[in-house]
Known about the structure:
This protein has helices spanning 49-68, 71-87, 89-100, 104-124, 163-175, 188-201, 218-227, 240-249, 275-286, 307-319, 339-354, 387-390, 406-414, 429-438, and strands at residues 15-17, 20-22, 29-33, 40-45, 131-133, 141-148, 151-155, 178-182, 208-210, 231-237, 256-260, 265-269, 297-303, 358-361, 377-380, 397-403, 418-419, 421-425, 443-446, 461-462, 465-466, 479-486. The chain folds into two domains: 4-261 and 464-483, Aldehyde Dehydrogenase, Chain A, domain 1 (3-Layer(aba) Sandwich), CATH 3.40.605.10; 265-446, Aldehyde Dehydrogenase, Chain A, domain 2, CATH 3.40.309. The longest helix has 21 residues, at 104-124. A seven-stranded mixed beta sheet has the order 14-15-16-13-12-18-19, sandwiched between helices. Strands 9-8-7-10-11-21 form a six-stranded mixed beta sheet, sandwiched between helices. The chain is α/β, with parallel strands linked by helices and 490 residues long.
Amino acid sequence: xxxxxxxxxxxxxxxxxxxxxxxxxxxxxxxxxxxxxxxxxxxxxxxxxxxxxxxxxxxxxxxxxxxxxxxxxxxxxxxxxxxxxxxxxxxxxxxxxxxxxxxxxxxxxxxxxxxxxxxxxxxxxxxxxxxxxxxxxxxxxxxxxxxxxxxxxxxxxxxxxxxxxxxxxxxxxxxxxxxxxxxxxxxxxxxxxxxxxxxxxxxxxxxxxxxxxxxxxxxxxxxxxxxxxxxxxxxxxxxxxxxxxxxxxxxxxxxxxxxxxxxxxxxxxxxxxxxxxxxxxxxxxxxxxxxxxxxxxxxxxxxxxxxxxxxxxxxxxxxxxxxxxxxxxxxxxxxxxxxxxxxxxxxxxxxxxxxxxxxxxxxxxxxxxxxxxxxxxxxxxxxxxxxxxxxxxxxxxxxxxxxxxxxxxxxxxxxxxxxxxxxxxxxxxxxxxxxxxxxxxxxxxxxxxxxxxxxxxxxxxxxxxxxxxxxxxxxxxxxxxxxxxxxxxx
Length: 490
């Protein structure tokens, strides 16, 4: 496999604990494979409770000195880290492409996107303000100050192996917290490369610690952190069932949690929408990373009067997408992450077809390309009884639902336990206000399919979780407020 840069230059196939690289204390390793070919590209530590405890020990020991550093000193280290990430963008992108499979152009974009969080929180580190509370009694001074919450455990998914962990580590370190982390078992190498660059930037030993574990063994390592009273916060991006487990198991020590969980994003196209812009919005929102993002539209509702024209426009654009190796500059869609992902996509499409959906384009595995490829797909005449309406497909499949009026569209969009992202297209300014308020989601795209920004708060409602990442609000989840009342001043 050829790449534009030598990804192996940043390979670090060991745990990073207390400023040193080491194998797991279990003595075991597991395979990391290339989703495009299924070939093994690395063996990384199969960490267990002892490794998790060692990482927590290091983070707890490093916390007092790190939180005592001046905010501008922490900011300077984050800026160095940011510069190193950008300087190694080619290698990091090649590494993402190889272990995650996304097209190289998207991998480059992810590096820049992840680095933007590091730069943002380097600036926010110096803006952690408190308050002087107006006097309530003579002779008393009341203040509220913000302090780092403590040791943070960060658990991240495979779909954005650099951006997701940067989005969690950067605010934690900016706030004065130390970090233990476990990247996803499918894509640990990018996170370990980030830790190496953090080491080069000069983060003190113990401030940032990463361990790896396979899907089969991850719970034994993470549960060690859940039971450890020194870990004061969990930040997790992933499935709702795992998020619920983390909430339950951390309750005994009353940890603070930020949970960015599953989605079932609706995308509504009203009959007064600019249809070509709406199609472009679906393409941008749905097919990024091959549909493997938590904010991808999972249900596209199109008003009856424009349904047929919209379906034709979308079908033609989706049919033209190029599927292939992420390293091929012509590729727009790469492989899915693993066989389980492809099986789920196929199950959803087969179920929809059996229940009357029309395959407008795609609808098949692309086995001639490799084991993990699925054709970009548009399904017409979808309805609420299909599995893809209630479950997140997480792949390049667009089901089209027909609706008659605004109230029907909003009711259908909100008819889900999830509430991460939603989208709608209209040119009616009064409708924009009504629908924005009515949609039950933490993120709303109005005539826009690309929502991500380090300056915006990212997170959901209902069973899509709680807490926000990015923006000035993203620092609050890593801070606690202390009220100080000083008497005897009269």
